[in-house]
Amino acid sequence: MTQLQINLAMKVLRTILSWAVALFLFFPLGWLVLTAFKTELQAIAVPPLLIFTPTLENFTIVQERSDYMLYAQNALITSIASTILGLMLAFPAAYSMAFFKGKHTKDILMWMLSTKMMPAVGALVPIYVIAQTVGLLDTRTALTIVFTLSNLPIMVWMLYSNFKDIPGEILEASRMDGATLWQEFRMVLLPLTMGSLASTGLLCLVFSWNEAFWALNLSAAKSGTLATLIASYSSPEGLFWAKLSAASFMAIAPIVVFGWFSQKQLVQGLTFGAVK
Amino acid sequence: MAYLQLRGIEKTFGEQRVIKGVNLEVQPGEFVVFVGPSGCGKSTLLRLIAGLETATAGTILLEGRDITNLPSSKRDLAMVFQSYALYPHMSVYENMSFALKLAKADPALIEEKVSRAAKILNLNDYLMRTPKELSGGQRQRVAIGRAIVRAPKVFLFDEPLSNLDAALRGQTRIEIAKLHRDLGATTIYVTHDQVEAMTLADRVVVLRDGLVEQVGTPLELYDRPANQFVAQFIGTPQMNMVAAANLKALGSKSGLKIPEGGYVGLRPESVILVAPGEGEFEAKVELVEALGAETLIYVSTAWGAQLVARQTSRTPLTAGANVGVKIDTSTAHFFDAKGRVAAVN
After folding, report:
1. Among B52, B98, B102, whose Cβ lies nearest the Cβ of A172?
2. Which CATH number fits domain B4-225: 3.60.40.10, 3.90.950.10, 3.40.50.300, 3.40.50.1820?
């Protein structure tokens, strides 16, 4: 074989392998989508059916049995509110850590990140009790607060790593030019960090939307998000695969579409500071 | 009364005392240069005046008003940063007009002031560009323009030329001097480059380890340095120091009381090379640097010290030649064992 043929063969092999890996990863999701359009009997058929007449029956049942729009609305409100609240807290925190570095700034950052290492279930009881005591169980307020807190370390880190690439002298120059703190934020720092704010916000929006642990534990029928909706279709007996798939499909579809359109910003957000 | 006054200014970062009590008076329209080796506190002192750092002790007065604890934005001073610190997301015009915009100046007035500054600095063709579309020299001029537009009470420059190449640095230095002459604005300029200090300053403040070593006009510092540090910091090549112990005969010959354990300082132009056997001591030529307009001759003495002589005439001397070194006591500087200038008469 000539070098050219070897190169071609390698290329074909790499392509096949890439597709194989991609399909392997996509398979559960693809199967879920297929199942959503089957009847319950088709869903449990052995061998599994690949060719069948698709039905929208499951979607109708899901919509009849539970108010999809309510869950979707809860998910939307809690994700957006927690993202905005989180950005409002993370922005000044990252600002002070990046531009007024103290002796313990690095420690505080590490400590914040370390809270993400802790299993959420470790904090479940205290948080549940607090929510119950203050009467916030099954409210959007409780979910918004918890989502904000659980995303906050990541938000601060992302903004911090972006802010510290901005020369502090630019902000000092604005102070010399007579800018107040607010003007410094609004007219200098904000325009320079818009990109990172957007990608941090987008990422946390996705995180909050997908959050299941706290949503399942702190909410029920009133303030449940789509994660709660999905979970409500799993039952210990009876046939539920097709309906569960349909509910899941409805829950993930909006965020997948959203992620598709904002993937550039999301990737940028995740790789901040990695490449300069 | 002085325009800008520093009284007992101190600054401590953690355990470290960076500024250890500085007193200084700046007159209106004066061009004052802070010079010193790196780490001497000159930039910190400038940042204290700017309000970008807060003094640990002492007071700063501007036109008699205490501004020690006033935020930068209220001090009405303008600063040109070493990195230029232009706003990357704004055009040159927006960069230059930012301060006036914040001060809510009349748009027509802003327009007029910016275009006047742009004309002075030759920036008219670049007003709509962003900083990243400019060369280093142009960015530097925008940074200066941003300061000029405001007509501040004091201009502060923090090593503004150190990011420019040698040719541009020389040229910009001249422009800054000219600008100061035209505007007559009070200016404080920080540099580690003593040539910049000597050429630009009305008065030079030499700093070391957070303390003022000497304040004076450039030639005062050159001709009458207060101590060995200033003597060796100002002037290139630096002043030669000969230990008095090696010049025992000089005292009796000239009738001067050369301090015990002290030093005799000789500017390179005061080291006079004569025929071997004449002069105070013998030396051997190590290296000759013929620069055209001047010639630098490096010689080593019998006791191992190296001296440099500067002369405007060309020399037939080559490396290895033996010479005598004559000392003219009228141009020599005398320092005691602690490096302070010593009276010898």
Report:
1. B52
2. 3.40.50.300
